[in-house]
Specification:
The protein is α+β, with helices and mostly antiparallel strands. It has 2 domains: 20-99, no CATH class; 103-149. Helix content is 47%, strand content 13%. A two-stranded antiparallel ribbon has the order 1-2.
């Protein structure tokens, strides 16, 4: 999908430095937040079967929103996730109890595969993304792939390449 030039110009009208675009309060982070929240609203509309402010066709209805903290490639991000009255809404984009957005675990695994220690990864994530991540979280992410790594390391090799 192409983004209209006028929209880009409007979004970048106050751009003065890379920090305005990529920083902690930058446009990219705010745009990601807005898109995620809009997509979650769309998922709830699909789940309920009727648009916001329309008459309900079932006993289930929108029931406010809840705040959620996510660790993302852009640092810590607070989003609001919609809820339904029956509690049957299971969002796909950001699942219930999910605290890390896709891609964040990949960053941890990438640093680990390059030989960085858990403490070095923790410090790097704090420096780059301004998020505090526990050593236990880093260990659980790296442990999740250890079995696959061991299987790959111990795979049978062809005699001739």
């Amino acid at each position: 999908m192409a983004i209209r030039q006028e929209l880009l110009e409007e979004l970048l009208k106050d751009y003065k430095s890379p920090e305005d675009l990529l920083g902690q309060g930058g446009l990219l982070k705010e745009l990601t937040k807005a898109l995620v929240e809009k997509a979650l609203d769309g998922e709830l509309t699909h789940h309920l079967g009727y648009p916001k402010h329309s008459a309900s066709k079932s006993d289930n209805a929108r029931n406010g929103k809840s705040k959620k903290g996510l660790l993302t490639d852009h640092g810590k991000m607070e989003i609001v996730s919609p809820r339904d009255r029956n509690g049957s809404f299971e969002p796909e984009l950001v699942k219930k109890r999910q605290t890390r957005f896709d891609g964040f675990d990949d960053k941890i695994l990438s640093m680990y595969s390059r030989g960085m220690t858990v403490r070095e990864i923790q410090g790097h994530l704090e420096d780059i993304y301004a998020v505090e991540v526990s050593p236990d979280l880093i260990s659980s992410v790296t442990d999740s792939v250890l079995e696959e790594v061991r299987a790959w390391q111990n795979r049978p090799l062809d005699a001739v390449y």
